[in-house]
Amino acid sequence: MFERYQGGEQALLVHVDFRDETAREDLRELEMLATSAGATILGTVTTRRDSPQAKFFIGTGKADEIAQEVRRLDADLVIFNHALTPAQERNLERIFECRVLDRTTLILDIFAQRARTHEGKLQVELAQLRHISSRLVRGWTHLERQKGGIGLRGPGETQLETDRRLIREKIANILLRLEKVEKQREQGRRARVRNAIPVVSLVGYTNAGKSTLFNRMTQSKVYAADQLFATLDPTLRRIELAKLGPVVLADTVGFIRHLPHDLVAAFKATLQETREADLQLHVIDCSDERVKDNMAQVNEVLHEIDADEVPQLLVYNKVDRLPEGMPRIERDDTGKPVAVWLSALTGEGTDLLLTVLDELLSVQVVEHQLKLPASAARLRSRLYELKSIQRESYAEDGDCIVQIRLSEVEWLRLVKQEGPHILNFIVKQ
């Protein structure tokens, strides 16, 4: 489909330092991404600009300089630490005479390598197709005309239009298949709600140590490595807490700054575990100098997928890398735990985390008695969907009295969806 320069994985990195902090990327992160993708880094070219240039993203002089560096190093690939437009990629490839990748395509490539489950592969393919659809013009500039001649007269489509139609059809097909997977996940979630099993989801910046912590807590052997996006497919395991009993722990994909929107959209089903969790463990690499920025990026993605209202416990990982790092529990003024410091690698502090989970999840169950008039039939139906009704009876005036029990997260979500008037139905004890 694409007439692009072929080659290996010998890469030259390009990083532009913009004045606008929101447009800045991290050079060290680009190096880690390139290494995670399997590229051999030959060198790095950095430059400063106020804003991207329309034609080449970088200046014409810098583009010529990079072209000379590509020939000198015999590079197969030039990777930009930024998002490029299709036209910019095409223009740069003509000058460099090799493949050009932007940050988004690089992340998509890593995801494609890491996907193991059927669902993960479908989600990556969906993200790639959405990304490719905007770049189709590069492969068919010589065929942007209608077919003609004996044996070639077709439906009046250009080759470009045909490809776009085929991609649209394939995207629709993948969305249908993902919908089936999502329904299967929903059935599993309903079973957990019915059995009143709390779900704890691990979230955090990529390479923060989520999978290592997951393995430590569940005695599992989920793939964990010191590289970006080592985990892609979600994994669920059951653990036993001393007081509360069974809890489901979910390991999810790590986040990264400027995570491609195509990926966020494609992984909605996977990230559902994060959205529907009773508690999020926000795993943070406390040895990273960009710790505050990384936390902000994670919270930004959580907001984007509507998962920012789930209660969150901060888990500062890798205390073994700090000079005076000690496992401990941080509490607020009311005595409620807000953070746990530990090392998933050595196991120090994981017992403190289990104690805090027992403490937090034990108090996160809401019980109410509601008096529902006939006009609240939709709310009653919703409560049955959540499997939260324990007992039901009728008052003399015909109103329905229900005793409900559900997690605090579900209750707050219900109040938000149905409106604050639901509080008027609570029977004062």
From TrEMBL:
<feature type="binding site">
    <location>
        <begin position="317"/>
        <end position="320"/>
    </location>
    <ligand>
        <name>GTP</name>
    </ligand>
</feature>
<comment type="function">
    <text>GTPase that associates with the 50S ribosomal subunit and may have a role during protein synthesis or ribosome biogenesis.</text>
</comment>
<feature type="binding site">
    <location>
        <begin position="229"/>
        <end position="233"/>
    </location>
    <ligand>
        <name>GTP</name>
    </ligand>
</feature>
<feature type="domain" description="Hflx-type G">
    <location>
        <begin position="198"/>
        <end position="365"/>
    </location>
</feature>
<feature type="binding site">
    <location>
        <position position="231"/>
    </location>
    <ligand>
        <name>Mg(2+)</name>
    </ligand>
</feature>
<dbReference type="GO" id="GO:0005525">
    <property type="term" value="F:GTP binding"/>
</dbReference>
<dbReference type="GO" id="GO:0003924">
    <property type="term" value="F:GTPase activity"/>
</dbReference>
<feature type="binding site">
    <location>
        <position position="211"/>
    </location>
    <ligand>
        <name>Mg(2+)</name>
    </ligand>
</feature>
<dbReference type="GO" id="GO:0043022">
    <property type="term" value="F:ribosome binding"/>
</dbReference>
<keyword id="KW-0963">Cytoplasm</keyword>
<dbReference type="InterPro" id="IPR027417">
    <property type="entry name" value="P-loop_NTPase"/>
</dbReference>
<dbReference type="InterPro" id="IPR030394">
    <property type="entry name" value="G_HFLX_dom"/>
</dbReference>
<feature type="binding site">
    <location>
        <begin position="343"/>
        <end position="345"/>
    </location>
    <ligand>
        <name>GTP</name>
    </ligand>
</feature>
<dbReference type="InterPro" id="IPR016496">
    <property type="entry name" value="GTPase_HflX"/>
</dbReference>
<comment type="subunit">
    <text>Monomer. Associates with the 50S ribosomal subunit.</text>
</comment>
<keyword id="KW-0460">Magnesium</keyword>
<comment type="similarity">
    <text>Belongs to the TRAFAC class OBG-HflX-like GTPase superfamily. HflX GTPase family.</text>
</comment>
<dbReference type="Pfam" id="PF01926">
    <property type="entry name" value="MMR_HSR1"/>
</dbReference>
<dbReference type="InterPro" id="IPR035647">
    <property type="entry name" value="EFG_III/V"/>
</dbReference>
<dbReference type="GO" id="GO:0046872">
    <property type="term" value="F:metal ion binding"/>
</dbReference>
<keyword id="KW-0479">Metal-binding</keyword>
<dbReference type="InterPro" id="IPR025121">
    <property type="entry name" value="GTPase_HflX_N"/>
</dbReference>
<dbReference type="InterPro" id="IPR042108">
    <property type="entry name" value="GTPase_HflX_N_sf"/>
</dbReference>
<keyword id="KW-0175">Coiled coil</keyword>
<feature type="coiled-coil region">
    <location>
        <begin position="164"/>
        <end position="191"/>
    </location>
</feature>
<dbReference type="Pfam" id="PF19275">
    <property type="entry name" value="HflX_C"/>
</dbReference>
<dbReference type="GO" id="GO:0097216">
    <property type="term" value="F:guanosine tetraphosphate binding"/>
</dbReference>
<protein>
    <recommendedName>
        <fullName>GTPase HflX</fullName>
    </recommendedName>
</protein>
<dbReference type="InterPro" id="IPR032305">
    <property type="entry name" value="GTP-bd_M"/>
</dbReference>
<feature type="binding site">
    <location>
        <begin position="204"/>
        <end position="211"/>
    </location>
    <ligand>
        <name>GTP</name>
    </ligand>
</feature>
<feature type="binding site">
    <location>
        <begin position="251"/>
        <end position="254"/>
    </location>
    <ligand>
        <name>GTP</name>
    </ligand>
</feature>
<dbReference type="Pfam" id="PF16360">
    <property type="entry name" value="GTP-bdg_M"/>
</dbReference>
<dbReference type="GO" id="GO:0005737">
    <property type="term" value="C:cytoplasm"/>
</dbReference>
<keyword id="KW-0342">GTP-binding</keyword>
<dbReference type="InterPro" id="IPR006073">
    <property type="entry name" value="GTP-bd"/>
</dbReference>
<keyword id="KW-0547">Nucleotide-binding</keyword>
<dbReference type="InterPro" id="IPR045498">
    <property type="entry name" value="HflX_C"/>
</dbReference>
<dbReference type="Pfam" id="PF13167">
    <property type="entry name" value="GTP-bdg_N"/>
</dbReference>
